[in-house]
Design a protein that fits this description.
Blueprint (H helix, E strand, L loop, with lengths): L1 H17 L3 H10 L5 E8 L12 E4 L2 E2 L2 E8 L2 E11 L2 E8 L12 E4 L8 E5 L2 H6 L6 E7 L3 E8 L5 E12 L9
Protein name: Secreted protein
Keywords: Signal
């Protein structure tokens, strides 16, 4: 009987060791949309003059290797790319901004690192030191992304203010649009 229990314990340990983390699950869910584009709508925080309201919003899951790159197009502006990379068991989000000629914008590479492995459908990123130095007013930013079978959301909350911004993309309806972000 002891051998049976020992065998079951060893099997459980092997299965647990091979189980993916919530972070791995999140990345796998996101990677299944690689090469596809989706239209989005502002579902929280949009207001006239914010640079987003009233414009076509489109995301593409464009690069899906060790680094996932998701261009985010706002009308004719193709300057934004969300860059996700794993770092010591956590996920790092950086916002890459470029000019039409491919030169980096002076405000680029801001974001944060998730403080833990997150959830299989949610990862969040408090502003890092680089962001606080580059954009002091954004030091209180927290970004988060969600992914499910039907939607992807990009979210921003500025702690200590009423700033909240959410764009929701319908993953059930890919578009045929393929654009190149500036500097790609």
């Amino acid at each position: 009987m002891k051998k049976v229990y020992l065998f079951l314990i060893v099997c459980f340990m092997v299965n647990t060791a091979n189980a993916s983390t919530p972070l791995d699950s999140f990345l796998l869910k996101l990677k299944q949309y690689c090469g596809k584009s989706f239209e989005g709508t502002i579902t929280a925080g949009g207001r006239d003059g914010d640079g987003f309201t009233g414009k076509k919003l489109l995301m593409q899951v464009k690069s899906c290797g060790d680094t996932i790159k998701i261009p985010f197009f706002v009308g004719d502006d193709q300057s934004r790319v969300w860059v996700l990379t794993t770092q010591n068991g956590s996920l790092k989000l950086k916002h890459a901004h470029t000019h039409k000629d491919g030169r980096p914008d002076r405000i680029t590479a801001y974001g944060g690192v998730s403080p833990n492995i997150g959830f299989s459908d949610l990862q969040f990123f408090p502003a890092d030191e680089e962001t606080c130095t580059l954009i002091p007013y954004a030091c209180g930013n927290v970004w988060w992304m969600t992914v499910s079978d039907t939607s992807f959301t990009y979210n921003l909350r500025r702690i200590g203010s009423d700033r909240l911004f959410t764009v929701t993309f319908d993953l059930t309806m890919p578009t045929n649009e393929v654009l190149q972000p500036w500097g790609w």
